[in-house]
Amino acid sequence: MQKKWDRTADIIIIGAGTAGLYAAIEARKAGESVLILEKMRDAEWRSSMPVIAGVIDFAGTKYQEERGIKDAPAKYAEDGVNYCGGLPELWKAMTDEHLKVLTLFEKELNLIPKGVIGGWGHSVARSHTFDGPQVLKKLEDRALELGTVILWEHKAKQLVMDPEKGVLGVLATHEGKELSFEAGKATIIAVSYT
Question: In Å, what is the CA distance from 181 to each residue of 24, 35, 101, 135?
Answer without folding.
Answer: 16, 9, 28, 28
